[in-house]
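=== Structural record ===
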Amino acid sequence: MTSSCAFGRTSDGQTVTRFTLQGSGGLRVEVLDYGAIVHGLFVPDRHGRLADVVLGYDDLAGYEQDRFYFGAAIGRYANRIRGGTFVLDGTQYHLSVNDGPHHLHGGRRGFGKVVWRARTFGDAERTGVVLEHASADGEEGYPGNLDVQIRYAVSVSNVFSVDYRATSDRATPVNLTQHSYFNLAGEGSGDVLRQELTIYASAFTPLDSSLLPTGALASVDGTPLDFRRAQPIGARIGARHQQLRLAGGYDHNFVLDRAGAALSPAARVVDPGSARTMEVSTTEPGMQLYSGNFLDGSQPGKQGHRYDCHAGFCLETQHFPDSPNQPSFPSTILRPGDELRSRTEFRFSAVPKAE
């Protein structure tokens, strides 16, 4: 079932709608056409009790003022591009810079601060909303008119799926992701450091002091970035390891163990208290783990909750950071006549407690 209601008006007078996607398995997702934001994600625990497991705001003004990308669709380019510049087909492009001297998450405005065109769909198996946005040639410095479509859906088996499509009339880098902050115990319930994380990755892309990749791939073996076996997120977050010191915790792109372009497992997270479990699968080659290191409680969230450091974690399926400047990384260049297609699934469950 899909329903909708008004959520507010933007500062420039545009009407914003909230869409509610209700699956028969109990999963409920709330989506805004502003920023293609995942506003709420309600998941049953082992007793069937629902909790909203994503951080966010009660009103539109919160999202307009937001500095943390809560729930937002990210584009044209997720993550960082060094110096806000890249060379493509012999031409140097200069992007807007919004992270010191670097370009982050699409620039000063990005896809998370625009109103998308929306339409709903549904059948016996799933219910959803399609959101579309046209990014003009030159926007934030990117070449080409880019048409983007995001399809959010909830299935009867408690899978929240995100499908991306994009085309362009000029060659341009594109790297799309979803920037929800999860807390499987429920948003506003404290930190996520005891939630148990598995990442199906044997390597990561090391960072330099600017939080940009060095261009190398490094093994996770013997490091606090080894989540191949389930570990509490906070078990080693304070380790005296250079990569953790640089980022103030986890803010790293993992090179997923996967073959070809098929949908493959990326991560699994379990909250021991509620037994809520989230399994992430994707067609993307990488995934950014961010442990909410820069959350500071400065802007009240839902129900007035203060989101302090580590109040949520992000698992941003993606191509690698700074790929336009790293020829050894998988290409993110979308050319005329081609279509970008990408899919990520979040599967939710909870194991009933034994009597």
